[in-house]
Amino acid sequence: MAKVAIVGAGQAGLHLGIGLLMAGHQVTMLSNRTGEQIAAGTVTSSQSMYDMALGFERELGIDYWQDCSPQYSAAQMRLADDAGNIGMFWQGLMDQPGQSIDQRIKMPRWMERFEELGGDLVIEDADIATLERLSAGHDLVIVASGKGEIGKLFERNPARSPFTQPQRVLALTYVHRFNPRPGRPAICININPGVGEFVSFPGLTLDGPCEIFTIEAIPGGPMDIWGDVTTPAEHLAVSEKLLREHFPIEAERIDGHLELTDDKAVLRGRITPTTRHPVATLPSGALVFGIADAVCVNDPITGQGSNNAAKCAKVYLDAILARGDAPFDAAWMHDTFETYWDYARYVVDYTNMTLTPPPPHMLAILKAAEGNAEIAHLMANSFNDPKSISPWYYDPAEAEAFLASHAVAA
Ligand SMILES: Cc1cc2nc3c(=O)[nH]c(=O)nc-3n(C[C@H](O)[C@H](O)[C@H](O)COP(=O)(O)OP(=O)(O)OC[C@H]3O[C@@H](n4cnc5c(N)ncnc54)[C@H](O)[C@@H]3O)c2cc1C
């Protein structure tokens, strides 16, 4: 049985660590925060997750919230301007529901499970010296630090990273007094061209069900006004103002005034979408292996990062279990990451196509979804699996053939 060390007790690290323990491996996990600190801290994500990723959690018996959290089984996308003039709208049904569990609930519970299974949870902010120490005492060291600084030890891969700057200014908020859309609970994506996006869905937070939304402002655009915001109350006020000014149709859902679910229910930031080389060499020559956001981070606009983390954990778990007594060498690490990349590259394209002015073939597909329930259904299910809409979503010629086969003029 292997001795594995994992740095970072988040979506990927805990998923992988629990899977390894269940298979009889020995796992040490380093976290720079205790479960109590995570539970008492600020929100970290909107973490909308879909069936494939949730299925991998269910395989390990760690989707503890399916029966007690809001579920949503539709996706809708609306393109509209400040006045609410609608340029496009489609809604499609998902084959299986999505859900969003506040990571302040999920990660502490998973840390408990990790320890129940005999895992060694160490509270420490890992640095290079820590990685050296871990590599001396373990067969494999995995860095699952998400957006943490230590992930920078993995070299950026420019061939897989088209951006060198953040493409959006992000503002995340968990609220009450924001009514659900009428009809099926849905993930609602609203695009105001040249301004940014507003994405909302129901979730489960510390005090129960809530609505979670992310405002994605185009840098330098009219929603990029967060510079002076410091307090949660200011954050909420700016969010409500932007919602009313730029997404008036969604603003109709506000019941009086928005209320924060708690005083840590806001987050602001910006992310440069980046894919890195998955293997790093420490000064001693030892190798460490990166997973999930540490080596492939996307803007959250398409809500894929937690899903990616679960899928990456599943690929790495299967590869470790299949390795037997053979060493976890560089070739194995690269092969394992490439297995993940064969999926993740679609997510990167799917997300980056949403961040940039859309290519004509993408617009034609989205427009076609408006009047064609089957295309809307395929698009709604693409949140679960962006690869499922390849090749036609990603390639102009394939898009033309796809639309022709659905009797839609490209
Ligand atoms: C605003 C916003 C909205 C989002 N919405 C969605 C969404 O709707 N759907 C979706 O799928 N994804 C979403 N994401 C992305 C998603 O949350 C992440 O992609 C996912 O959590 C990544 O998992 P991970 O395991 O790689 O990292 P994380 O879950 O971030 O875990 C990393 C852990 O490592 C710890 N750590 C870091 N450095 C060290 C160190 N040196 N030593 C010890 N521990 C360390 C961190 O404290 C953290 O606990 C969103 C993100 C943001 C910012």
Question: Bound small molecules, which ones?
Answer: flavin-adenine dinucleotide
Looking at the chains present, what oligomeric state does this protein adopt?
Answer: single chain
Q: What is the helix/strand order?
A: EHEHEHEEHEHEEEEEHHEEEEEEHHHHH
How much helix is in the residues? 25-40%
Which runs of at least 5 residues are low in confidence (pLDDT < 50)?
none
**Shape type:** globular
CATH topology of the largest domain: the name is FAD/NAD(P)-binding domain
The CATH class label of the largest domain is Alpha Beta
Tally of extended strands? 17
Structural class: alpha/beta
**How many domain modules?**
3
What is the end-to-end distance?
A: 55 Å
Average pLDDT metric: 97
CATH superfamily of the largest domain: FAD/NAD(P)-binding domain
Strand residue content: 25-35%
Provide the gyration radius in Å: 21 Å
Sketch the major β-sheet: 9 strands, mixed
CATH architecture of the largest domain: 3-Layer(bba) Sandwich
Describe the structure.
The chain has 410 residues and is an alpha/beta fold. The chain has three domains: 3-65 and 101-163 and 272-354, 3-Layer(bba) Sandwich (FAD/NAD(P)-binding domain); 72-98 and 167-269, D-Amino Acid Oxidase, Chain A, domain 2 (2-Layer Sandwich), CATH 3.30.9.40; 358-405, no CATH class. The chain contains twelve helices and 17 strands. It has helices spanning 11-22, 35-39, 51-59, 103-116, 128-137, 232-246, 248-251, 305-323, 330-355, 360-371, 373-381, 396-405, and strands at 3-7, 26-31, 48-49, 72-80, 86-100, 120-123, 140-143, 169-178, 186-192, 196-205, 208-217, 254-260, 266-269, 274-275, 279-281, 287-290, 296-297. The strands form three sheets. Strands 3, 4, 5, 8, 9, 10, 11, 12 and 13 form a nine-stranded mixed beta sheet that branches. The chain has a six-stranded mixed beta sheet with strand order 6-2-1-7-16-15, sandwiched between helices. Strands 14-17 form a two-stranded antiparallel ribbon. A hairpin with a 3-residue loop joins strand 9 and strand 10. The longest helix has 26 residues, at 330-355. The protein is globular and about 60 Å long. The N and C termini lie far apart (55 Å). The model has no long low-confidence stretch (mean pLDDT 97). Flavin-adenine dinucleotide (FAD) binds at residues 7-13, 30-33, 45-49, 125-126, 144-146, 148, 150, 170, 172, 214, 267, 292-294, 300, 303-307, 309.
